[in-house]
Amino acid sequence: MATLSEIASLRTSLADEAVAHLHRLVAAWSLLADLSFSDMFLVAPDGHHDYVVLAQVRPNNRATMLVDDLVGTTQTSSRWPLIASAFESKKVVKGETHLEGVDEEVPNWIIPVGFNGEMIAALVRVQGPLRGPASAYETVYLDIFDRFCQMVGDATFPYRESDVAGPGFPRVGDGIILIDERGLVEFSTPNATNALHRLGLYKTTEGRSLKEMGLHVRELERAKEYAMPRREDVARGDVAIDFLCAPLLAHGAVTGVMVIVRDVSELKRLDRQITSKDAAIREVHHRVKNNLQTVSSLLKLQARRSEESVVRTALLEAERRIRSIAVVHEVLSREPGDVVEFSEIIPSLVTMVEESEFGPHEVEIFVDGDLGSLPTDIATPLAIVLAEIMMNAAEHAFLDFTSTDVGVITVTLRTLKNQYVAEVRDNGRGLDANFSLEVPHSLGLSIVRDLVRNQLRGTIVMQSAPEGEGTGTSVVIRVPQTS
Ligand SMILES: Nc1ncnc2c1ncn2[C@@H]1O[C@H](COP(=O)(O)OP(=O)(O)OP(=O)(O)O)[C@@H](O)[C@H]1O
Ligand SMILES: [Mg+2]
After folding, report:
1. In this structure, are residues 407 and 363 in contact, taking their beta carbons and an 8 Å threshold?
2. Ligand 1 site, CB within 6 A
3. Are 73 and 154 in contact (CB under 8 A)?
4. Ligand 1 centroid vs 455 CA: distance in angstroms?
5. Contact at 8 Å (CB) between 383 and 479?
6. Residue 213 contacts by C-beta under 8 Å, 6 or more apart in sequence?
7. Is the pTM of this model over 0.90?
8. Least confident window among 72-76, 126-130, 218-222, 332-336
9. Among 177, 165, 155, 164, which residue's Cα sits nearest to residue 229?
């Protein structure tokens, strides 16, 4: 279906600024449809004495009168003399018409849309039948609608800067307080009165200012002063009320303010809940990290007490594994959300490996590249895997090194073709000739294999440096980014 801009440029001679003005009118006009309990559509002359429909809106508070989509249809002036007289008089014209696309004659108002002193289009209100005599609040709505019609003609509505309707904006049905020229409450709909009660204002409201009643809405005064819509949230205890203050103008002067009132307490409460849930998750990570450190200290203590060297080594290994998990949790407890910067995890792992002593020689670790921010369900297992592999290099690669040698481990991190690629290389003795990753001999590589293949859905290749490319071992891990 064609858009307002497309129809305007193909079938009317409206200038770009005029079309922009109509766009803003359409962005805000559900307010008018609700105030008048009516369907509305927008027409502009098509240059052949007929009129093309640019847009259409239905009321939220009444059944629609226009079941069909009229956008893009031509309304012929011969069948609709009212429209010609509206464009001639530049005044609101009311009558009954047989519209193109509608089966029966419908009562309609033709409201001139002004812009730069000209009538560029017409807003057509197709009136639904009122159910019996209008109630007090319906009368007030219709009265405010009349004032907006005047403003549409004067081009003071839509407002120049901010909109008053659209997603996230309160609706007429939420409640209206009508403020007069002097700033006194002229009328308040039942929903608006309820909202004021929730703020602790119980006295009858009419004839007094909100301020006198003990409610200071600063933006209400600004709306009057600047003739622009303003918005403010007023909160008392658990209650929060949103006040949208839309000035009503006649011939450029503010003659009153329509305040749309909406109770947003529930929304605010949900907001607060979400924020506190975020904090709770971080607190849980923090506690997990502390608990892991306690476990790690306990294991270290047990290891020191143990007489048997095999037991001691096993306990120290377990202690180190717990510590590498704690490193990841340290980062998770700081980062809100479900992604972590991998570059923040790596340094602690490197320090942990460098500090472990496996012989008389030094071990140096260099990290090259970065993987950026990773989802935690990738970052956590990947960090544990890299810790195991770096630790293996430090532990097994440099067995024949003396105190004058330096074991070098290089970690290269890259993102390639939707894969995270991590390579760990050392300059040590290489893998034993009969080494196989598939033979489950020891715990370390079993953990690595399981995490890479089952949890990360990735691959692992371990091999000694090929002839002529120095010594040592290379371990390459590839993990798909979507796992
Ligand atoms: N970078 C390396 N250089 C030489 N040999 C290695 C290297 N990495 C692993 N290996 C060999 O692979 C074996 C298996 O490693 P794995 O991590 O599974 O066990 P581990 O390190 O001996 O014990 P742990 O369960 O404490 O990790 C090692 O014992 C070692 O012989
Ligand atoms: Mg190991």
Report:
1. yes
2. 317, 392-393, 395-397, 426, 428, 431, 441-445, 473
3. no
4. 21
5. no
6. 196, 201, 203, 205
7. no
8. 332-336
9. 164
